Amino acid sequence: MPSDGNTGGDLLALDTVADWLRERRVSFSVAVSEIARYADLISYPMVRADTVHPADADILVWMRGPLSVDAETPLLAVFAGKPRIAWGVSTTPPDAEGHFDTVIARDRPGEPGRLDLSFRSRTAPVPVVGLIYAGPQPDYRTPCEPVVRTVVRDALATRDNAKIEIATRMPVEGNRLQTPAQREVQR
Fold first, then answer.
1. Helices assigned H by DSSP within the chain
2. What is the mean pLDDT of residues 48-74?
3. Rounded to an integer, what distance in angstroms lies between the CA atom of residue 17 and that of residue 28?
4. Of the candidates 111, 108, 67, 109, which has an alpha carbon nearest to the alpha carbon of residue 85?
5. Considering the entire predicted model, what is its pTM?
6. C-alpha to C-alpha distance for 136 and 114, rounded to whole angstroms
7. 24: DSSP letter
């Protein structure tokens, strides 16, 4: 997995493929561009993509968003003469597909789409916590706001959850909320 542009969906798709491989007792490693970047996100054996040796690899399963490869893509050379599968890729251009023995596209022009691999993940869902901080306000002369932020942050850090900070000030750059009615819809 390249280190730029990956999404939570890419990681869930990886979980789906990893589960499928483990159920079939296939050992595997995930080739990534930067191990340190993924150390807290991927619990599978990892190897730097630029250090994969042909003798250590039997098959390539390429998965991640648009299939953007060409003859110069280094991993393709490592897997020359070995099975190469592109799985769950999107809008695959015909010239990129030619570098793989099998392409199981999520979607491609002119064909019906398939369910994204991320939706097949068995990863347990976690609660989503929306955080709305009012911030310091001169009307209320109390130093509690930073303390409350710390207490809430520390409490949430002990639990598995997804935190989303929600801005409610009008208007706020980037929150796309312009009217009180739009803000109400966000709840």
1. 8-23, 35-38, 74-78, 94-97, 144-157, 180-186
2. 80
3. 10
4. 67
5. 0.65
6. 48
7. T
